[in-house]
Design goal:
GO terms for molecular function: protein disulfide isomerase activity. This protein has 159 residues and is mainly alpha-helical. The protein folds into 3 domains: 35 residues, no CATH class; 25 residues; 83 residues, Endoplasmic reticulum protein erp29, CATH 1.20.1150.12. The chain is built from 7 helices and 2 strands. Strands 1-2 form a two-stranded antiparallel sheet. The protein is elongated.
């Protein structure tokens, strides 16, 4: 019906696919796609996708312990004395305002955690992590599990 110009052949020629398997990454900014020339195992491919997409997933699709970590000024906040914490918090606020995309969402979690540590004391992060771990052990949706894991990862920096 299509002769030698099958849709598969046309697509292969259009994207310079000469052999199989050929993997290409198609970011929004590049309709031609980028060749994948990394390793052949799943870990290599997942690393490539995480780097290209700004994600932090493992080979099973779950968030890793690095998900959501943009620890701007947090280490300074944690080590600061009570009098200095407010000044560092204000700097965190300024930095969070500059964040874009998914990091802006993470920044809001950092900001909320910083504020709660100021108001409730240093033990806030530990007690909040315990609550999150209890919720993660229940039957919850994958979206909620991702959200709670990200919060847990961020809170761990405040300990």
């Amino acid at each position: 019906m299509f002769g030698t110009r099958t849709p598969t052949r046309v697509t292969a020629v259009a994207y310079d696919v000469c052999g199989f398997p050929t993997l290409k990454f198609f970011p929004k900014s590049n309709k031609a796609g980028e060749d994948y020339d990394g390793g052949q195992d799943l870990d290599d491919f997942v690393t490539f996708i995480n780097e290209k997409c700004g994600t932090s997933r493992d080979t099973k699709g779950q968030l890793t312990a690095k998900a959501g970590i943009v620890d701007t000024l947090v280490k300074e906040f944690v080590s600061a004395g009570n009098d200095e914490k407010k000044a560092v918090y204000e700097r965190i606020e300024e930095e969070v305002e500059k964040l874009k995309g998914s990091t802006a969402r993470y920044g809001q979690i950092y900001l909320k955690a910083s504020k709660s540590c100021l108001e409730k004391g240093g033990d806030y992060a530990n007690s909040e992590i315990q609550c999150l771990e209890c919720m993660l052990n229940k039957a919850i949706s994958a979206v909620k599990a991702d959200e709670f894991t990200m919060k847990e990862n961020i809170l761990a920096i405040f300990i």
